[in-house]
Amino acid sequence: MDSLLIKGGVRLDGEVSVSGAKNACLPMFAAALLTSEKCVLKNVPDLSDVRFMADILSALGAVVSNPSKGVWEIEAREISAFAPYELVRKMRASICLLGPLSARLKKAEVSLPGGCVIGARPVDLHIKGMRALGCSVEIERGYICVDARKMRGGQVYLGGRFGSTVTGTANVLMAAVVSPGNTLIENAACEPEIADLCKMLVKMGAIIDGIGSPTLSISGVPRLGGVEHSVLPDRIEAGTWIAAAAASRGRVLVKGAQKRTLGSFLDILERAGCPFEIRSANSIYVDASNIKLRPVEAVTLPYPGFPTDLQAQLCALMTLADGISIITERIYPERFMHVPELARMGAQISREGPSAIIAGKTKLSGAPVMASDLRASAALVIAALAAKGETLIQRIYHLDRGYDNIDSKLKALGAKVERLKA
Ligand code: EPU
Question: 20 and 231 in contact (C-beta within 8 Å)?
Answer without folding.
Answer: yes
